[in-house]
Amino acid sequence: MTEAKPITILGMPKPFRGHIGTIQRNAIKSWSKLQPRPEIILFGHEEGVAECARDFALIHIPEVARNRHGTPLLADIFACAERRASHDLFAYVNADIILPKEFTLGVEKVRHTFSKFLAVGRRTNLEVRDPLDFGEGWEEKLKERMHREGQLESHTGIDFFVFPRGTYEEVPPVAIGRVWFDQWCIKYARKKGLPVIDLTSFAPIVHQLHDYSHVAGGKQWVYNGIEADENLVYYGERQHTYTILSATHLMTTQGRIRRVFFREEAFAIKRFLWETFVHKTRTIRKRFGLSGGAGSEVTNETTMSADSLLPARPATESAPAKKQASLVSSGALSCPACGRTAGVQPAEQYGRYSLYACASCDLRFWEPRELPDARWYEQMYGGRDEKLLPLEPGHKYFLADPLAAGQGELLDIGCGTGNFLAAARDAGYEVSGTELDRNAARFARERVGLPRVFPLTISEFVDRYPDKKFEVVTFFEVLEHQAAPVEFLQKVKSCLRSRGFIALSVPNRERWLTGPDVLDYPPNHFLRWNTHALTNFLNTHGFEILSVREQEAGFVHTVQMINLSLRTGLSRSRAEEAPASFRDVIQMEPDQAEAVLHAAPTVRQRAMRMLRRIRYAVCFPAALAVYPYVWMRGYKGTYLYCLARLKD
């Protein structure tokens, strides 16, 4: 191969402030280290761009066309490159991306194979907080860290585009840095019949993780705001139609370019099998010790953590187990939400628990109500310190709710491993959280970078920090666990500023069910809410309802309900000593539950579990036929979301 020719790299940096300024300098420094040294053009008049261009001896073009929101347009950057670039090969690279030396080698191999093309690459996410040392061996050290700590982004995470001069002749006014502009670039190349080469394996790039504080509206605006909607219109396709899976060629780790076929179809099949046999069975496998692979041990120490603000206490200590004694008046029970007399005839019984209905406020509640301690939650919800779970529907509803505060200090009660807190932080909130499970709280602090997550109940938090007030307090999938909901809500109110917001979600009692929900029993859940009961409760205790949303029963919910309706008890009868259901396990004494959860299943039990997975997979074709009816009837899904505000 002849000597590599230089290329022109195009960059549109964000303002050089704080952490984002640091990582952008890391990225641009890595570009300047490529051989042969590329021509680098930085666009925009954002804070610090001119200084960076001067420091690294780069070309700076401050004026670039923007949309009405002030966001730069891709069309003008490509047009400027056609006029100003010295070289005939362009690379548009996001300004937080570190490029390895293999980048120019891979591009040169592609250039020698095709005269016209588009080369793209998928990013590996890595937490980088400080300026990098670009001394001898810097790339090897970074690659070692990337392999150890990095996480490869999904097929939608595309961060560079390499193409010859004259490739993009007609570019719509898509906004840079907003979702869909990258997929438009791939669509355009494919529609022109150009080869699209995936360089990910040969030239892995590093995306330095960051928040979205540089964008008004945060991450929610980037992915779901008006500009995202406008980009989708210009994109003109269904979401994720053109991704890196749409590449026609792949460069191997050895640098060979090979044609690829059916990547999208293979991914769809793989995703279906994973959803069917892995994801949908994860909860049950976790409960009964069938999940493969232990979570990696956390060894990184957090310099500033919530634990450092608390007095040391033994690992076996748990939060105090509170008891809610029901008041008995004339042989009837008092409703824990409104205090009025409820009926004495239980609507349902399970073990030592009885379910009652309040005719006044429409709440259904179990008796007796005795909150389990922290050990119980760590035992039953164990394994949450292995990975960051996806957002629940209630989280997404809040982040997209136009009536929410949008900024300010936020406290999330029962924050788990911090998935919602991380998203709220990216959306512009200053976040704190409480979590009874100490392992989950530790994961949130050490692995997710949330230093203000406290292993406390809300009562302990209020007692310890009585003067701390928040603009927003959230508690998703928490209220149904409470033995004393009025006391809980009073603690929440004591954390709020004047006219503060609360956001919550609970299981909707009116959701479509074809059998018992094993999680919806005591001592896991004590309260069953519907829209009427929840809004009554909040209104009575000083809140103004801003929005309520009931999740619709989707396709996956339809599959689950078909599967639930097909339970015959055959597997339990054939599996010798049938394993206890989770509904039974949660009512056991801790030592007994521990033994059941970690008991090794017999061969026959394993076989019957496999049959149940097969049955679940068979439910998917049936759901295709049933779901249109479910949709037309407006069946409700699991979650009920509510946003409210303190009254004057």
C-alpha Rg (nearest Å): 28 Å
Mean pLDDT: 85
Give the helix tally. Answer: 22
Number of domains: 4
Kindly name the structural category: alpha/beta
Shape: globular
Contiguous low-pLDDT stretches (5 residues minimum) are 292-331, 568-576
**Main beta-sheet strand count, sense and barrel state:** 12 strands, mixed
CATH domain topology of the largest domain: Spore Coat Polysaccharide Biosynthesis Protein SpsA, Chain A
Indicate the percent of residues in helices: 25-40%
Distance between the termini: 75 Å
What do you see in this structure?
A hairpin with a 6-residue loop joins strand 15 and strand 16. The radius of gyration is 28 Å and the shape is globular. 35% of the residues lie in helices and 20% in strands. It is built from 22 helices and 28 strands. The protein starts with 7 loop residues before the first strand and ends with a strand. The model is unreliable at 292-331 and 568-576 (pLDDT under 50). Helix 6 (181-191) runs parallel beside helix 8 and helix 7 packs parallel to helix 8. The strands form five sheets. Strands 1, 2, 3, 4, 5, 6, 7, 8, 9, 10, 11 and 12 form a twelve-stranded mixed beta sheet that branches. The chain has a seven-stranded mixed beta sheet with strand order 23-22-21-24-25-28-27, with helices on both faces. The protein is α/β, with parallel strands linked by helices. It has four domains: 8-261, Spore Coat Polysaccharide Biosynthesis Protein SpsA, Chain A (Alpha-Beta Complex); 306-319 and 371-552 and 636-646, 3-Layer(aba) Sandwich (Rossmann fold), CATH 3.40.50; 323-370, no CATH class; 562-633, no CATH class.
